[in-house]
Amino acid sequence: MEVETGLRYFRTMLTIRRLEERINELFGQGRIRGTTHLSAGQEAVAVGVCAALRPDDQVTSTHRGHGHFIAKGGEPKRILAELYGKATGYARGRGGSQHMACHEIGFLGANGITGGGIPIATGAALAAKMLGTDRVVVCFFGDGATAQGTFHESLNIASLWKLPIVYVCENNLYAMSTPVHEACAVPDIAARAAAYAMPGVSVDGSDVFAVREATAEAVARARRGEGPTLLECKTYRFFGHSKSDDCAYRSREEEEYYKKRDPVALLRRALVNEGGVSEEELCEIEREVEKIIDEAVEFAEDSPLPEGLATDGVYA
Predict the structure, then answer these.
(1) Which end of the chain has the least Cβ crowding within 10 Å, N or C?
(2) With contact defined as beta carbons under 8 Å apart, do 238 and 231 qualify?
(3) What is the three-class DSSP state of 7?
(4) Which domains are delineated in the chain?
């Protein structure tokens, strides 16, 4: 058991979980407007993937991107400020949940279009290759995005040109309310990689170490100039597709089963049972994370609203 590493992962995963729980609460109170899509339950994917990257590597995200952002080094207070529409947010309060980016940490942005980040990531990988860097790009997307034409077009050209990219499919079993087995003819989305002559790997998305190891192998392959990999992380979202989704299409038995596979709880138990970490040490981390989230809310609420025109800083 990599205890110190595990503790670091636990802290980050718990930060994602607590931030999203608070966002859900604030949204319900009407203190956050617009829309938001939560990734609670998928934290091990974000943290495991980003743990295998260098600071200069880049990622593209999805409409469900808060976890990816934090795992890549984003600050909870600036994420929350953006959701509040405040000037201190990552898009100066003009982008909201689905349009945040921070190029300084290699986070190329979330995307409100299903599959919209796939060609962007592929273009970033092409740029990395043309510039002669050994930078790698990771592209996050959901199972629903694999039905988009951008998926086929991007994976095909990335394989042809041996681009340094890892395509990470977060298969949480549902594209909004459509079960993946009703939309995909093969049981593993990773099997689709064979059509593009690239490795396809399925991994338990609740195991942060398994995700990290699979990603590290794919990243090393890409950095050697051997081309892309399709990595499927099998996971589950605890909340609905969005705030208005009551998950009527899922059984309570299914939800209970996957809650027993809660990645945060699994890592916590492993740290105690295999790593010998004390409950007090973990409780201290939990208190520290709660303080971070409380301070993030205070920062967001105290931050100023944007000034100027709504179109300032917006390009088309």
Answers:
(1) C
(2) no
(3) helix
(4) 3-302 (3.40.50.970)
Asked whether 174 and 236 are in contact (CB, 8 A), the reply is: no
- The DSSP output letter for 34 is S
Mean pLDDT of 128-135: 97
CB atoms within 10 A of CB 104: 8
pLDDT tens-digit series, residues 2-39: 999 999 999 999 999 999 999 999 998 999 988 889 99
Task: Assess contact for 233 and 168: CB atoms under 8 A.
Answer: yes
Q: Which residues contact 47 (CB under 8 A, 6 or more apart)?
A: 9, 12, 13, 16, 67, 71, 208, 211
3-state secondary structure (DSSP) of residue 3: helix
Residue type, 232: E
Take residue 279 and report the two structure tokens written for it: 């409950």
Label residues 288-312 b or e (16+ Cβ within 10 Å = b). Answer: ebeebbeebbebbeebeebeeeeee
Rounded to an integer, the average pLDDT of 99-122 is 95
Partners of 166 in the β-ladder: 138, 229
In one-letter notation, the amino acid at residue 152 is H
pLDDT in tens, 242-254: 877 889 999 999 9
Give the chain's end-to-end CA distance (angstroms, integer): 49
Count of CB atoms within 10 A of residue 141's CB? 27
For tokens 């609420």, the residue is: 301
Q: What is the CA radius of gyration of the chain?
A: 19
Cα→Cα distances 283→17, 39, 130, Å:
15, 23, 48
Q: What is the spatial distance between Cα 7 and Cα 282, in angstroms, rounded to a whole number?
A: 8
Structure token digits, residue 261: 């596979």
Q: What is the pLDDT of residues 212-231, one digit of tens each?
A: 999 999 999 999 999 999 99
- Amino acid at residue number 150: T
